[in-house]
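Any chance you could type out some protein's one-letter sequence along with its backbone structure tokens so I can compare the two?
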Amino acid sequence: YFFRTCGRTDTQGQFFADEVVPLFNAKKVAIMHDNQTFSLGLAEDTKEALQPKMDAGEVELVYFDAITPGESDYTVPLTKLRETNPDIFYFTGYFPEAGLIIRQARDIGITAVFVGGDAAINEDFINIAGLEYAAGCYQTQEALIEYFTNPEAVAFKEAYMAKYNTLPSSPWSVYAADALCVLAEAIDKSGSTDSDVIADYLRNKMDKFPSITGPISFDEIGDRVGTGINLYVVNADGSFGIYG
């Protein structure tokens, strides 16, 4: 059995197509991935989400290609991307490459709005790129813990701050904590540790369980119902904020 407390890449791709592209009035879109499972999946899901807009002539996908992760010089693929003159550039890979890519992209004159997927932009991205390059970059991402105001989130933040004097820098540890909480709830309410019983409870009986990241219910295939995606921006001081 498989259940997830976070969102799926197709949700993120749809958000990019429906919300981010119109927000910047982008007509020419470039998508770069790294051929790894997550990155390629997000890139393909985004392309699929853009298809109706492409069919209607509203958007043109001018670049869709991969880089090789772990390299230090991406000027060759970036030069090819520059020739397409995109309005918006979506990189679906990871932060080590993203930091190099935004620096090298700006250095060769790519001025497109730069948006990273939820593995691309974090504090390490800023350190690799340098704040001069990172400021003004955007990220599609599940909601970060600092923006939750429900009682469970407030209690979690207070306890976490008391112990570590900071908040988690990414959402994944928080979603992992929620996974543990829903599992414990299922065991408690079903009175069983049998996997069939637990799966049945999660799928059919858990209804808006009050977790750290908000109410949790699951659909018939184990995906969380109603996971939200936001657009974040790197501010001039290196902090992150919700954009729009």
In short: The chain has two domains: 9-143+228-242, 147-216.
